[in-house]
Amino acid sequence: MTLVPPPSPLADTVLERLTALYPTAADLGRAEGAAAYMKGIAPFLGIRTPERRALSRKVLDSLPPPGETDCLAVALRCWELPEREYQYFAVDYLRRHVGRLSSGFLPAVRHLVSTVPWWDTVDLLAAHVAGGLVAADRALGHDMDDWIGDENLWIARTALLHQLTYKEVTDTGRLFDHCLRRSGHPDFFIRKAIGWALREYAKTDPDAVREFVTGARDRLSPLSVREALKHL
């Protein structure tokens, strides 16, 4: 499904400021290094994170808080720009305003995690945007049950990681079920995500994770097991 940015005067202002300010801090050498580190997923401006966030504060200075339509417009328009830092801005913007988003925003998250996908944007969208939406509307957990089986590994990874910050309110049945459903997946990013999700929950309930891994060791990849038990 292709999403078209909706009209938004606020997004117009944000993008006008953003595309004027970000290039002022561009650094070709850092840009080449960043693109190489990220396996060429996108070109970069080469802005260090602290500088980028300082510029972002200038972009947003004196602007009103957005509505859901504004958030969608900002995110989609940033995703249309080639340099990766614009997508980082959009991710930060959505994280900051996730409480303003309704359950109906989830299809937009699906679009973002499956468009120019790599771990640098997907993981933050999973844990802080998809996760925030599901935390606010637990019925969206059923959507995560669909996403976990998706052939797109980034959508499946989002489902695995959406409870990453949940701690005591983690749906352990869903977490363990998702891990088992994709335990045979051959890709590094899925196997790593399984281990990461389990390792994070182990900080809350180490006994449950240890018991799960012991019982599922013959189904989990060595990487997933190693990551899950890393701090146990």
Write the layout of secondary structure elements.
Elements: H1 9-21, H2 28-37, H3 49-60, H4 68-80, H5 84-96, H6 106-113, H7 119-136, H8 141-147, H9 153-161, H10 172-181, H11 188-202, H12 206-216, H13 222-228
Explain what the structure shows:
This protein has a domain at 1-101: Leucine-rich Repeat Variant (Alpha Horseshoe), CATH 1.25.10.90. It is built from 13 helices and no strands. It has helices at 9-21, 28-37, 49-60, 68-80, 84-96, 106-113, 119-136, 141-147, 153-161, 172-181, 188-202, 206-216, 222-228.
Gist?
This protein is mainly alpha-helical and 232 residues long. The chain is 63% helix and 0% strand.
| Corresponding CATH architecture of the domain at 1-101 | Alpha Horseshoe
Beta-strand fraction estimate: under 5%
User: What is the CATH third-level topology name of the domain at 1-101?
Assistant: Leucine-rich Repeat Variant
CATH class of the domain at 1-101: Mainly Alpha
Radius of gyration: 19 Å
Give structural attributes.
232 residues; mainly alpha; Leucine-rich Repeat Variant; 13 helices
